[in-house]
Every structure is written in structure tokens, then in C-alpha cells.
Amino acid sequence: MVSVVLHGSFLVYPEVKINKRKGMVISMTVISTTAITDWFSSSLADFGAKLQMVFVEEDRYQQMIRGFLNTLQITAGALGVGIIIGIVVAAIRSSYDKNKESLKLRGGVGYHILRILNLICRFYLTVIRGTPVVVQLMIAYLIIFASSKNGVPVAIFAFGVNSGAYVAEIFRGGIMSIDGGQFEAGRSLGFNYLQTMWHIIIPQMFKAVLPTLCNEFIALLKETSVAGYVGVVDLTKAGNIIAGRTFNYFIPLFTVALVYLALVVILSWLVGRLERRLRRSER
Questions:
Q1: In angstroms, rounded to a whole number, what is the distance separating the alpha carbons of residues 217 and 221?
Q2: Domain boundaries, the chain
Q3: Which residue in 125, 217, 115 sits closest to 172, CA to CA?
Q4: Contact 85, 164 (CB under 8 A)
Q5: Considering the domain 69-232, what is its CATH architecture?
């Protein structure tokens, strides 16, 4: 067994070698603990000086804080827009899928209106899910809202429209998983179809899809890192600006990565707790 011996201010590493002619040879490697301490102290002081130069000088940390707050604002706003769009699209698509045959036999204007709305929703889902979010963001900022000088509301709109396509399919799957007897129960209470959807189906659907919706929120949080393409100073853009001004890319970009990682870990932990609580409530 080879052990490390502390002798005064030195670390002694015995090393055993087997030589065919001389037999066992024991050599000693000596390292000064003072040199190790000095190296560690100088490295720590150098890193502290770089941190001060990157974040403290010219109050650059405030730019990181503003970028962080913009990221949270864009994410929360886009999720709200996405939920509204998702509920509308999911309700139209699931209503058409569930009542297509009966409405077709009955005929009338209602069937054709619902059919047209379903086609519009399918076109929306195909276009949004089939194109990159960066392209959608640039179209929204440079074409649709070309006169806007504030990129944050435009980013909320663009990411919200993009998220709505994915949230709609999550909600649609949740609505389709609800037992058909729930619709009959609503009719027996005197509700029409819209009232049944609003008071009975959608609350149950939210409970079923809530963990998946939270995972979509985590994915949306990371997707907003491309908001800097249209001049929005989000967390990633703030780190990139600081890196360009200080010519130090390691500290700002790793700081951005650590902040995103911390947010995702915290949100994932909360989602895990939510899933366990929902499982306990179903027993």
C-alpha cells in the first residue's frame, strides 16, 4: 500500500518499482506544500480579479440582472399566450374529431364552420411546428412588427405563438383522454357543449397534462435564449455583450450556462414534486 507522508512543509510520495537486477527499489517524490498553497492562492486571486473585471467594473452585473429578468418575463408571457392559443386550438380540433360524424349527418352551417376552423388550426400547427423558432422570431420583429422599438413584447408574441402549437397538442391529447361519459354527464346537468368543455372537461384535462405543461415551460425557458437575434437583451445576449467588451468569454458564458442550469434543476425538482402530489391525490 502506497501512502502519502507529510514531512514538515513537504508532501512525500513513496513509489515502489520492481527491478529484475536490483530487486525492489523505493523512490521518493517530494512536493513542497508551500508551493501548492501559493499556486492555489495566486490562482484564486487571479480568478477573483477576473470576476471583478468582468462583472463589477462599469456595473456590468446589472446588465446580467436585466437580461435575467427579461428572460423570465419573455418566458412567463409566452407561456400565457401559448396556453390561451393552445386551449382554443385544442378545443376546436378535439370538438371536430369527437363530433365529426354526427355533425356531418346533421349538416348545416355549424359543421362547415367547425370544419373550416379545424383546417385553419391544422395549417397553423403545420407551419409553426415545421419552421424554426428563430425564423418565426425574425419574421415577427422585422416584418409583422417592423415599427416596434421594444423587442420584448414582440418576443413574447413570437415565442407564445410557437409554444401555442405544442401546448395545443398537449391539451388535445388530454381532452381526447377524458372519458366520453363526462360529456354525457354535462348534458344531463343541462350544459351545452361549450359549457361542458369549460366546466367539466378542461379542468380535468389540466390536471392530466399539468406535468407535461411544466416540461414545456422548461423547454420554452431554454428556447428564449435566441431572443438576442432581434436585439432583445436577454440573459444570453447580456453574457455575450459582456464577453465582447471584456474579451473574456469563459466567465460570462459559463455564468449564463450555470444560471440556466440552476433554473432548469429547480423547475425539474418542482415538476417532480407536482407529479408525486398528483399521484397521491389519485389514490
A1: 6
A2: 1-35, 69-232
A3: 125
A4: yes
A5: Orthogonal Bundle (1.10)
Q: How far from the centroid of its chain's Cα atoms is residue 186's Cα? A: 37
Cell digits for 142? 422585422
Residue 109: which pLDDT band, with cuts at 50, 70 and 90? Answer: confident
For the chain, give percent helix, strand, coil, nearest 5. 80, 10, 10
* Location of C-alpha cell 380535468: 204
Chain-centroid distance of CA 35 in Å reads 45
Number of Cα atoms under 13 Å in the Cβ half of residue 267: 19
* Alpha carbon separation from 133 to 157, 201, 235, 250 (Å, rounded): 12, 31, 18, 27
Top pLDDT among 278 and 38 is at 278
Q: The sheet that has 5-7: what strands, in order across it?
A: 5-7, 10-19, 23-32
Q: 153-162, 212-221, 271-280: which has the minimum mean pLDDT? A: 271-280
